[in-house]
Amino acid sequence: MADGVPADIDTSVPHSARIWNYWLGGKDNYPVDREVGAQVAEVFPGIVLAARTSRMFLGRAVRFLAAEAGVRQFLDVGTGLPTVDNTHEVAQRAAPDARIVYVDNDPLVLAHAHALLTSTAEGATCYIEADLHDPGAILARASEHLDFGRPAALILNGIMGHVADDEEARGIIGGLLDALPPGSYLSLSDGTDTDPASVEAHRQYNESGAIPYNLRSPERIAAFFKGLEAVPPGLVTFTEWRPEPSPWDEEKVPGLCGVARKP
Fold first, then answer.
1. What is the secondary structure of 150-208 as a DSSP string?
2. Beta strands at 124-129 and 153-157: parallel, antiparallel or unpaired
3. Could you report the per-residue pLDDT of 249-259, keeping only the tens digit for each?
4. GO molecular function terms here (predicted)?
5. Hey, how many other C-beta atoms are within 10 angstroms of the C-beta on 147?
6. What was the pLDDT predicted at 7?
7. Does position 94 have pLDDT exceeding 50, yes or no?
8. How far is CA 237 from CA 71, 144, 216, in A?
9. CA 227, CA 162: separation in Å to the nearest integer?
10. Among 128, 28, 5, 33, residue whose Cα is nearest residue 78
11. What pLDDT does residue 2 have?
12. CB 3.0–4.6 Å: which of 26, 236, 239, 241 could bond 21 by disulfide?
């Protein structure tokens, strides 16, 4: 470790989790991340709002799942760096016995895992290092902590854009959901290609050296929910899913989110 940075973290290359952390107002990022984040925000200022309203959707979705749907197990893939109201905090606030497994493969996230590994005495929180592109490995390791004989919620918040191919993306989601029993849920958010400034900003982002993030049309995102029962209000913008008072009540950013139940 040099200057407090773990040896396996390359601070010369921007990273999506750290750039996202920068947009959220966090401090777990480096100059290269802030440079790319600021460049994207200059082309598309709404990216900061998109990051923050997507995060707020996550909190509302997890609270619904724990408090209203009765879910007690959460598999959060691509969790990113810890910030305010992480999945385990929201879930265990509503259901102290909730069990949460976080999945990521970023060394900085791993270095900060201790901030995630807090839990109520009744529940459990753990972190596993695995890659989104290998759902089999995710399930194998997650099954050590979750009971896949009982319903669980699969959380994919702002992560599927890292999988460019639609067939592969659907295969990953399907593979993860296939391991979960009926009564389980998918909670997903993703950016859309509906705003020209956002499309251009993401083009520049993808050329920065960070892992590319691919925007999709609303129709392509909707296909991720095929065969599932949508929870009202269905697939909507980040601020429209069970909205609560916020500074961004009327804002609509180019992104969609939804929660659906596996029948």
1. S--EEEEES-GGG---HHHHHHHHHHHHHTSPTT-EEEEEEEBS--HHHHHHHHHHHTT
2. unpaired
3. 556 789 999 99
4. methyltransferase activity
5. 12
6. 56
7. yes
8. 24, 35, 14
9. 23
10. 128
11. 41
12. 26
End-to-end CA distance of the chain: 48
Exposure of 34 in the CB half-sphere (CA atoms within 13 A) = 7
Kindly state the average pLDDT of the residues 144-170: 97
100 or 17, greater pLDDT: 100
Cα torsion through 153, 176, 209, 52, rounded to 10: -10
DSSP E strands: which ranges in 24-79?
Answer: 73-77
pLDDT band at 239 (very low <50, low <70, confident <90, very high): very high
Q: Which residues pair with 156 in a beta bridge?
A: 188
Residue 45: CA count within 13 A, CB half-sphere: 1
CA distance 74 to 224: 19
Q: Is the peptide bond before 212 cis (omega within 30 degrees of 0)?
A: no
Q: Are 63 and 69 in contact (CB under 8 A)?
A: no
The DSSP letter of residue 121 is: S
Query: What pLDDT does residue 247 have?
Result: 67
Predicted model pTM: 0.91
Residue found under tokens 């191919």: 165
Which are the contacts of 185, defined by CB distance < 8 A and separation ≥ 6?
A: 65, 69, 71, 151, 152, 153, 154, 231, 259, 260, 261, 262
Judge whether residue 83 has pLDDT over 90: no
